[in-house]
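Friendly challenge for the regulars: who can give me the structure tokens for this chain first? No prize, just bragging rights.
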Amino acid sequence: MIRSFRSYLACVPLLGALCLFVTPARATDSLGEALSRLAPSADPRVIDLAVKASECAQTQGGVPSDRLAVIDYSRPSSQPRLWVFDTVKRKLLFQELVAHGKNSGDANATRFSNAPESLASSIGLFRTSDTYMGKNGYSLRMTGLEQGVNDQALARAIVIHGAAYVNEAMAKVAGRIGRSWGCPAVRTAVAHKLIDALKGGQMVFSYYPDRRWLASSQYLKCTGGQLAKAEANTATRAGI
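First reply, four minutes later:
Bragging rights claimed.
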């Protein structure tokens, strides 16, 4: 017992040194790296694009945002493909199933639209707005920030809301969840809390590997200096 305790004491300086070595490396991680570690099931390349787009929007006169939702429509609807992060505290708040539009595809979304009554989802960067009670209950409006890609979101009533057809049981039995009319619908059990976390000017990034959009999006074209300044501002708010 005494020998074990002495061995422990001998290891304490080494453990302290290891802590000093590991902690600064974590603290100096980029925001994209930090969020990817919080959500290991997410594609780190998608998380990185989402962070860059969000930070880019904030360098262009946008109000600072503390929350970021990332939707990866390249994944089937039977898998969690929505992550909501607190970018200041660097925390994962939600990891959820999310529906795509009826005309975007069956189990997998492959078609996207900005057109009214298309019943398809839209990709790109959005900023959240106000909440309201509608036919789908508590809902969150979003403004599409990308011209010709998602800027009709408000007119189309593309909102975040809860839906009974978004559930794990259906995903297991049918191989997919139900589909919306273009809205990123979530489970009713989490809808209210998730919406409250995202309301009031937060960022939502909806991804699909569409080459034209990836090549043309203004929010994926900020310079390294602009992004570094935006990340520094986030770090300052976090007290890092």
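The chain has a mean pLDDT of 88. The longest strand covers residues 124-134. Your move, everyone else.
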